[in-house]
Amino acid sequence: MSSSDGPPGYRRFFASLLPFVLLATLNSAGYRYGASDQAFYVPAILERIDPALYPRDSDLITSQAVLTVVDDVLGPLVRATGVRLPSAFVMLQLAALSLLALAAFLIGSALYRTQWAALALMAALTLRHAIIRTGTNTLEGYFHPRQLSFAIGALAIVAFLRGRHVITWSLVALGGAVHPTTAMWFAIWLGVATVVAEPRLRKPLAVGLVGCVGVAVWAFVSGPLAGRLVRMDPEWLATIASRDYLFPLSWPAAAWLVNLAYVPIIVTLYRLRRSAGLSIVREHALVIGCLSLGVVFAALLPFNAARVAIAIQLQPARVFWMLDLLAVAYVVWLMAEGTGAVSVSRARLVAVALAILSTVRGVYIMRVEFPDRRVVQVDVGETDWGRAMAWARTSPRGSGWLAAPDHAARYGTSVRVAAERDVFVEGIKDVAVGMYDRAVAMRTRDRVAAIGDFNALTAARARELAQEYDLDYLVTEDALELPLEFESGTMRIYRLR
To answer: Which of 70, 310, 323, 487 has its C-alpha lying 20 to 30 A from 316's C-alpha?
Structure first.
């Protein structure tokens, strides 16, 4: 970093932290509790707090929860502290965004010559975007463990660039506890980078690799990954056919062009930096480690094409999220500094321009695309659905609920999250969980078929489902000839037996 910009202090970072969090939230269409993938994570944690909470859906929840320790850690922690889970999730979201901001500033401080360029990288990372055809966004408008794991992995990059190997691998391990697959990609990235940068560490790393292989063999033979080397049969595959991001060989050409473009961007801009004498120690190794993720992705493609379960469940296309991070860092460098003489005013202009772009985009998203959303919704919300779910939380534990298969998408949260009760089927998330467990996939398929067209559901058919599947309540907007237990606006809760 240029002396014209002063020592790499943190004053500007702390001044920019709150704007970063706000802009990231606006560009994510606000913060919402219980949205999207939280349809799984919230019940998994709630079940650790109260094991009797989901007697009907416990197997479904466990089928994915067994792969993570987030629920095992947060459940007892929330129970011990008395903090409500929605409040805990807000704090975790703030932590994830803050760590990402810190990682961006420190990566920028290592690669760039001005602090303003580092601030420009922070601003660039608030511009949420999808990693095309991977099922992943660079930011989410709700707490997701993979976002926290990604931020921790980005901090591990900083530790690597500084030669702090103990800290690097401690951070990778911490990220693995939060979200194993996200941390696994960082482990490959930084493992290869360390091999390239530190010849003296190659033997210890080889020993560590042998140990990892041993752990992997155990995991696949008798551990949490047992049974995942099988090939998915046609029935199982049919249940996840709509998740086209799981099958890269079916991507359109445009998706391949966009994702593969990361490689020439990284290579070209790194070579430009090196030819100008601007590359730093270990940057070459960092680039090779990052590009090795593309090799891993290519190596997994034949197994994905053969429909081997683990090659689908790992979702290897998410390696492009990591390539996106390095590519964005290099593009920001080119914009803010380039190969010429250092210019603080140029870097400042780019940082301000990116911040303005992020602000305009964020305001547009909140005011035009999602005008009914609040910037921050900490809890389920005071809507008709929210009030119905509040009543549902007073119903007997263990009661069975029937709702539209797409109710989480319709109303923003699932019955399992908002009511803390078992639900007959939650079509969107249950299908996703079925990727990890064939029995769950078949259960979801059969139950969605049993409901048929929910909008055409009659009182007689609802009673038949209640009798066959031991259900107690129906939540719907339709007026049916059933005993009405609760009503709020258009939402009605009926007793089924």
So the answer is: 70
